[in-house]
Amino acid sequence: KFVGIYYFVDGRLLYQCLDELIESGATTKGEYQLTDALQKMLERGARMKPFVIDDWYDCGKPETLLATNRVLLARRNSTMEAIKAHNFKGSLIKPPVSIGHQVTIEESIVGPYVTVADGVTIRHSIIRNSILSRDATVENMLLDGSIIADNAKASGQSYTLNVGDSSEIRLG
Questions:
Q1: pTM greater than 0.85 (yes/no)
Q2: Cα–Cα dist 167/172, whole Å
Q3: Burial degree of 68 (CB within 10 A; 0-12, 13-18, 19+)
Q4: How does pLDDT run across 22-38, given as a tens digit for each residue?
Q5: For residue range 61-117, what is the model confidence (pLDDT) as tens digits?
Q6: 130 vs 53: which has the higher pLDDT
Q7: Pairing of strands 153-155, 142-144
Q8: Side-chain-facing half-sphere of 142: CA atoms under 13 Å
Q9: 70 vs 111: CA distance, rounded Å
Q10: Of 5, 9, 81, whose CA–CA distance to 50 is shortest?
Q11: Are the CB atoms for 57 and 67 separated by under 8 Å?
C-alpha cells in the first residue's frame, strides 16, 4: 500500500515553486497541483526519496481519528508523576492520557485514551476514548468516543458527540 506523505527539511524551495505556479496561472482542472510544484523542485535539483512507514491511519473520519489517538497514547510514555503534578481537584486520571497546559479538571474521571489540549475545562464528568481540543469545556457529561473541537462547550447528559469549533451544546 502506498501513501502520500511529504517531509521537507527546508520548505523555501517548495513555496517558491508554488508561488511560480500561482503567478503563471498553471492549473489542472482549475486547481494548483502540489505535484507540479514537486516536479519544479526536482528540476532545480531537490533530492527526494521514499521512506517506509510502519502504520497508516486515515484521520478523515471520527472513528479513525479516535483509533489513531488510542495508538499514539498507548505508545507514549506518560508517567503518573507528570499527571499528578497537575493536582486536579477530586479527580481520577486513568492513563494513557495526554493533558495540556492550563487545564482545569474538577470532580471528574478522565481516561483511558483521552487527549486534553491546552486550556480545556472539565467539571463533574467522565471522559474516555475522546479528544478535547483547545479551550473546550465539558461539564456534567459522560463522554465516550467523542471529539470536542476548539472553544466548543458541551454540558448535560451522556452522549457520543463530535462538536465543531466554537459550538455550544446543552443537553437535558
A1: no
A2: 17
A3: middle
A4: 999 989 888 999 999 99
A5: 889 999 999 998 998 766 555 566 677 889 999 999 999 999 999 999 999 999 999
A6: 130
A7: unpaired
A8: 3
A9: 11
A10: 5
A11: yes
Counting every residue, how long is the chain? 172
What share of the chain has pLDDT > 70, as a percent? Answer: 90
3-state secondary structure the chain: CCCCCCCCCCCHHHHHHHHHHHHHCCCECCECCHHHHHHHHHHCCCCCCCCCCCCCCCCCCHHHHHHHHHHHHHHCCCCHHHHHCCCCCCCEECCCEEECCCCEEECCEECCCEEECCCCEEECCEEECEEECCCCEEECCEEECCEECCCCEEECCEECCEECCCCEEECC
